[in-house]
Amino acid sequence: MEGSLRIPLSRVPDEGVDLDIEVETGELGLEEGFWPPLRGVRLTGRLERTGPSEAVFRGRARGIFRLQCGLGLAEFDFPVDEAVVAYFMPRPSAAGTDVEDEIELGEDDLEAAYLDDETLNLGPPLRDQLGLAIPLQPKCPGMCLGESPEMCRRLEAGEGVGEEQAADPRWSVLREWRK
Ligand SMILES: [Zn+2]
Fold first, then answer.
1. Most-buried pick from 44, 51, 103, 115 (CB within 10 A)?
2. Pick from 107, 126, 1, 116: which is nearest to 57 by CA?
3. How large is the C-alpha radius of gyration of the chain?
């Protein structure tokens, strides 16, 4: 079954259904400027009923962020592959328009969401898991975690990264003259 992240509960059979959804990044409604560029988003997993008007999704969220190294030396691809578990249940009351769309249950990979119009929306749990996977201080694989960890360490510590100046041939002439 492929398609949108909004799935009517009526299309979820009692025995459950496997999902494999290639997601348009635009469909996630990411706030521009707050999210790094993201591509290749895919949600796979299984959707099962847990009651006449309840369902649970268990699966994985994948995507590739384009991150800038925390030290500004490089841009790099950062693939993520995160577990997603989301419980969908009816909204407690029709008047609850001020209620948050999602309830955080305190665990990173566990989320509850309300059904609207008997339709479950996998977008918010997917977006939340992808967001949690973004490192606060990205380290580029090429330099910081690769060929130049020492240079990245010195940059981070605010130390110089150039060669020592004593070797500059322009000053050796001046030093000779001073003698
Ligand atoms: Zn770096």
1. 115
2. 126
3. 25
CA 132 – CA 108 distance, rounded (Å): 8
Alpha carbon of 126 to ligand 1 centroid (Å): 28
Q: What is the 3-state secondary structure (H, E, C) of 66-90?
A: EEECCCCCCEEEEEEEEEEEEEEEE
- The per-residue pLDDT for range 31-40, each reduced to its tens digit, is 888 899 999 9
The predicted pLDDT at position 5 comes to: 93
Structure tokens at 49: 């009923």
> Which is nearest to 25 in space by CA: 5, 9, 7?
5
Residue-wise pLDDT tens digits, 96-117: 455 455 455 555 445 688 888 8
Residue pointed to by tokens 């050796």: 172
